[in-house]
Queue: 2 jobs
Job 1
Amino acid sequence: MRITRIEAVPYSIPYRKPLRFASGEVHEAAHVLVRVHTGDGVVGVADAPPRPFTYGETQPSVVAAVCTLFEPALIGLGLLEREKMHARMNRTVGNPAARAAVDMAVWDALGRHLGQNVSALLGGFADGMRVSHMLGFDTPERMVEEACRVRAEHGVTTFKVKVGRRPFSLDVAVCRALREELGDGVDLYVDGNRGWTAEESVRALRAMADLDLLFAEELNPADDVLGRRRLVRQSPVPVVADESATRPGEVTRELLGGSADAISIKTARTGFTGSQRVLFECEGLGVPVIIGNQIDGQLGTACSVVFGAAYEATTRHAGELSNFLDMSDDLLTDPLVISGGRLPVPAGPGLGVAIDEDKLAHYRLDSPTGPTPGARPADRRPGAASPTTA
Amino acid sequence: MRITRIEAVPYSIPYRKPLRFASGEVHEAAHVLVRVHTGDGVVGVADAPPRPFTYGETQPSVVAAVCTLFEPALIGLGLLEREKMHARMNRTVGNPAARAAVDMAVWDALGRHLGQNVSALLGGFADGMRVSHMLGFDTPERMVEEACRVRAEHGVTTFKVKVGRRPFSLDVAVCRALREELGDGVDLYVDGNRGWTAEESVRALRAMADLDLLFAEELNPADDVLGRRRLVRQSPVPVVADESATRPGEVTRELLGGSADAISIKTARTGFTGSQRVLFECEGLGVPVIIGNQIDGQLGTACSVVFGAAYEATTRHAGELSNFLDMSDDLLTDPLVISGGRLPVPAGPGLGVAIDEDKLAHYRLDSPTGPTPGARPADRRPGAASPTTA
């Protein structure tokens, strides 16, 4: 059960349709697959999606953090020495996606070693989650069309609407069209990715006061400190802190500072170990949580549902688990399926998923070294700009 | 791995020397042994110490809660459906020791089933904890003598001094004598078990300002709300909330209300699952924790060290792990040994301990029904006032 090697494989899979939002846009899933190898041959896997516009990480920075900082710190530790691992990884600041992927790959390996699903090891509350689908910037017509399609094809009835454009009336029109076309049977909430000022946010929420929104997430910048507090005081719906409150200490500051009413938990940035800490803190403080999406592929989405299904508090609201629908392909041998508005926890030990090695070979950006575990340097050099063909 | 039966066996083991403190005194360990049986023959065990003066529980109330409320709610659930178990147990309020013992017995069974130590499953940070020894009411001479003896015999250098007597000068004299006799090489803190008023507490702390105390715990009643806040503002040492802040919501109220600076975690009242929640909440809020003692025997102490050793934050301070030294006997096959001021996590799957069935037969207060699992009614009738002889 001891860690012998940690791989970081950069890969890129194109999106069928780019996702656009206030802080950026995504055309390809340029992520890093992290694999934790153990002495007895068990391998755990997880995904690191770098988000430079949110956390400053890049594909090369994730590879470097995993291979030059975390791997040497963790080699030789047992899979159950989790708190020791984090004490060592905590000597490095930042790098949340890299750190989270290592944590979740260790949990996957542990689950496989014990023959247990990680969701059960974490808490075992439910066997799946309701799904919330994210709608990126577009015209009201096309966003309504997408929502109707996702509802028809997957049974999804909760939608997170990207807002934060100027003038804010653009986004108000979208939300109004969604409510009018989809009716009262759907849940709607909005995510501004810090695109508005506090003043715009308050005015936009007032203009949508009759739309029965569930939440309003990150409408304006967290560093707009007093503006955020004014927004929270005046907002008719709970204000969700996402990228402004990732670590437990940040969660405390935002909540106790009156800058948020609820917290988005993303396993892609806090893993399972850190997400559990954020969740239990929020539970203790009596604050709602949402399972968010770091524009995850299927592996990252599997991690989100594994964590979210494990606890009562995380299953109260639909989880953001459908982003992979916009990708042209993925890495899992058995694709995730959203049906009846619900995503089940993948069955089986660990995360319950397996990587399709042919697909990984096709989409990886480095030069694979083949099956020789010792020949590692080439594994560590991200760079090629386009996917190689298998 | 499914739960088939939960036993609750009342027993009593006399103390060699009674423990006296502001809220009560203890002459015997009149506890309840809780055993969770599973379909594949694995049995998990934990101890429930009823503390009527703190939580209102009694030996019969623990037996009744386990057998009439919790057992029917949990039978048929798998050992990894932990959050479902708690959702069901949470339909019953109160009964913390009964609930915690069921939780920890489930973890013990899970660890045995998986072949892993529970401390590793929880976090795996360390393999033991430094020990803090509790000194009950007596004369300064005898309390110094006990401290010197425990230091000489077990290497313990942290002492929790019971205070809360009137006049408070009695206790100030004890603390001063301890500091003078034991020198600067020991850590001292005080626990008032709500015995003083806020005014007495402030005066007593002022009178001990030169004694370098680590903490001051529950000096005055929590319902003395403004008095507690004044004490926290004026105290030169962090004020620890113990029995006033057991559930996460209470922890939030006490900390955010300015009525405490630190939190005592006791596995005997929050089990492992609830203790993890309190710990992660305190970590997120940046608040120190202490692993406390609910006047535990060796089984309860094993649970405390299993949890406390699992995390960095719980190992920062010595844990209260030595109370069993005052008991005339105990139930474990291999007694815990404190040496060099340290208690190791018992090695092996689950909690790493085993019950000596002959001793249990000797000290149990009900009529054992022998090995037939079906014949249960007599198991459930606590009552006989004195131990039977084997």
Job 2
Amino acid sequence: MVYKENYPSKLLEEAVDAISSLPGVGRRSALRLALHLLKQPQENVHHFATAITRLRDDVKYCSHCMMISDDQVCSICSDRSRDHRTICVVESVRDVMSIENTGQYNGVYHVLGGIISPINGIGPSDIRVRELVERVAALVSPEALFEADADGLEGSAGEVILALSGDVEGETTSFYIYRQIARYGVKVSSLARGLGFGDNLEYADELTLGRSIVNRQIFKP
Amino acid sequence: MVYKENYPSKLLEEAVDAISSLPGVGRRSALRLALHLLKQPQENVHHFATAITRLRDDVKYCSHCMMISDDQVCSICSDRSRDHRTICVVESVRDVMSIENTGQYNGVYHVLGGIISPINGIGPSDIRVRELVERVAALVSPEALFEADADGLEGSAGEVILALSGDVEGETTSFYIYRQIARYGVKVSSLARGLGFGDNLEYADELTLGRSIVNRQIFKP
């Protein structure tokens, strides 16, 4: 049943309007949430509203990698034990959290804040490609290479990992970025594609399956 | 995959805490919503927070029926064309909205604000039964009956419709209320139980099916 738009209170209607503007929240769920909030202690509701407002108003973005941060430089970029010559390029903050949760990566990140998508009107200048190019340029500058030498890294020019999604937009963005940074002579890699752990062969698409055969690896039992 | 609790920002973590306190919203959805809000224009987020705060702070409850309202008396109770001698007793604000949306009811309401549930520690004094009893008493007072007479209602004592859910707690609450108001001589009714429109006989439970046979109605094609 669809609720018709006759709310007993203008305030309720406005709250439902606001809540249902969230992605994946319909007007009926929004009504349920609004009535839930109405039953909560006043200070809880104030705390809820404040937490959201403060997030939007006060959150900072790391000046190096554009990751969400409470400081000018995020905890990853300020961690001296991480490899600052390996930059993993991701679309969003959530991707950084996902990769961090794997515990398998010790480099730094670059958050693009979007993906090139002509259909949605998002071009290269709408995402942080320029900032990435600047970082890569700095990585291969004579001073940086000299420093790396001193660190015993044998003048390694560094690596950029393109960790974007495997759809058309991700591939387009990867290709665009590759063309922008290839001239600096850094190693450019992308995520391994293949069958997921636990995936059934029967349901894998041909492209993925094809790639996992071509890129097959030595079996280590 | 479950996100481990390592957020890149304390503000983000606090917003996720707040959002995931909503019913039916897990931490992962909460993160998605928080990151969505981060991308919205600042004034939209402020509007969102304000709408929720104002709902909690400024909403009123009708002094007659306890329905959510922007005024002291709700639009239903202040509507002279409605039958004020028929009171439909419901658990929640949402029930009023549901019944109003049927367009089949022209009386007034009484919102209990809960249901008697010993397992959840909710007793008769936690819901608005006393207020209902007072309304029923006023309905059958000599003055009210005199007024009704003048209105050509032939001194009708009025009716209380118990529109509570059909589970144990609803039935318990209905029975409790019945015992409180029966002595006033009002007519007490409850919602018709039976097969829903479009319901398949095969899947109906025995109680419902039994009741719909006993309370069968003349077929009107």
